[in-house]
Every structure is written in C-alpha cells, then in structure tokens.
Sequence to fold (243 residues):
Amino acid sequence: MYSIGITTYGARIYKYLIPLVDQIKLIKPEIEIIITANGEINHFDEEYRKELFEFISTKKNTHLVTYPRFRSLSKLWNTCLINSSNSEVLLLNDDITISREFFDAFDYVEKKGCFKINGSWSHSFLDRELVAKIGWFDERYLGIGEEDGDFEWRWENQFGTTISSRYFDGIINHVDCNDCLADMNKVNGKYSKFNLEFAIGTKYIESEDGKNFGIMDRQLKCISPTPNQYGCEEFYWENKCRL
Fold:
C-alpha cells in the first residue's frame, strides 16, 4: 500500500492541483493524498488558503499542510514522506496529468525501494525508510533545484548503484515554469540561484578525485555532509505500535 504526495503553490490551484486531485480520486477514491501547499516569499494569500481548505474538505482521505512563507522543495517532499501513513509514497509535482492507464500498470507491477518515473523527479516512488538512510532531502537547499541531483549523488555514494527509473504510459508532466519562483533570483528559467550556489561551492566542490554520480554530471567531493534533519522519525516508526 502506498500514499500519494503532491507539492503545489498558489498560482496552480485551478490550473493544475484541482484537476490532478479530481483525476486521482475518480480512479482511486480511497487512496491517501498528502498535499503540501507552499507560501510565497513575503506573504501567504488568504484567498488561496480558503479555497484550498474548501476544496480539500470535499475529498475523502486527503490531507493538507500549508506554509505561511515559501519553503524549499526539499522541505515539501520530506513533509509528504513524514506525514504519510504508509512508508511508500508516489510523489508528484502538481503540473501532472494522470490517467487510469497509469494506475492500471503502476498498481500491477511489483514496487520496491525508490525510483524515478519516466526519467524525471517530477514523479517518483520513494520508500521513506530508504530516504532516511540516505539522510532525507537536504533542506539547506532553500529554493528549488539541485536537491534531486544531490539526493542521487548521495544514493550512489552509499549504495554503489544509480537510482533507477521505471517507465509508464498514462502520466504527463507539463513542465510549466511560467509562474515559478516569483520574486526570487533564478537560473535556467525555473531554478533557484541560491540552490545552485549552495550545491557547487558550499556543499560540494569540483575536484579531480571527486565522484561523478547521478545527474550532478561533474566530479564532486562533498565537503558539507547532510545534517541529521529528522533523527526521531525512525524511533517513531519503531515504537508507534506501543502507543
């Protein structure tokens, strides 16, 4: 059994989030959905908050976490994983179209561990116990970008293999970056400049004896390892049955 985690923000509630949740609930009405709704850099839109809660209240087994101010994609992903009732989570961006064809194939195949879907981190399947062993998504990446490459680098460094990708029809990633990261310094159209500068220069340095792992695509040596961000979660998993 798995849950679904969706990350979203204000500009996408009608264009993407509502249609995506409606699509999922039409096909799988009982499935647990965790939605993390980001704020903006300097405000959280009250009308957006109201509309979110009104919409979610009509959906069975659908749960919402909101942030008064912008938080990192790493934070949102970790929140989906931690709040899920299940260890395994299908993690989705909001700019996704999904169909019964996808679930017919996805639910049929054996799913173990962690893997990207169709080669992209816009949709992935993650076992949070493995994510915890890697060290969660690094929340020092305060914006959006590089957190997925960082995770892949650490995955290969620990397990000795690249994180896999599995391919399914019936799921479309629209890659809509027109409204991304308002009021933030960006690079390459939709990514945080802060994250890039943190990745190369603070957490990693380029080095001839570094390792070229995952999608980082350069020889890197880690000089600032990921801190222990959620050290009590494993204790909770092991002891929650005693409550």
